[in-house]
Design brief:
By secondary structure, this protein is an alpha+beta fold. The protein is built from 4 helices and 5 strands. Strands 1, 2, 3, 4 and 5 form a 5-stranded antiparallel β-sheet that branches.
């Protein structure tokens, strides 16, 4: 059995009206330092978003979520933040922000396979 390692994760949320505190989980970002693993899994349920917030520009939200994922992958075309170390990108991704895309508090866990843990968390918290 592979050795278990620690990981940290946070939910990625759409918060179109910060004043109302309403949100919808649209993804999970997971970081496992010892495994050299940083990944984001995103899914936008456009019908659900439009039902909750009809005036929301879903295409703009998708564009920003795509940029978020490109930073996590370290794609150079995603700008200077994407060229930071993996650990620095993790901290940037989970930093508090007051935009319509926010992340939850960071949570920790133990796993044998960070990719499987990301899949499990995504299914449990987003789907």
């Amino acid at each position: 059995m592979p050795e278990r390692t620690t990981f940290d994760y946070a939910m990625v949320r759409v918060v179109p009206r910060i004043d109302r505190g309403e949100l919808m989980n649209v993804g999970v970002v997971l970081y496992a330092l010892k495994c050299d693993y940083l990944a984001v899994r995103i899914a936008v349920d456009e019908a659900r978003l439009k039902a909750l917030w009809p005036e929301l520009d879903v295409e703009l939200v998708r564009d920003h979520l795509d940029a978020f994922a490109r930073v996590a992958r370290g794609e150079a075309a995603a700008g200077p933040v994407a060229r930071l170390t993996q650990r620095e990108r993790w901290h940037w991704l989970v930093a508090p922000r007051s935009t319509i895309l926010q992340v939850s508090a960071v949570h920790s866990g133990l796993c044998q396979d960070p990719a499987k843990s990301l899949d499990h968390l995504f299914e449990r918290l987003v789907r």
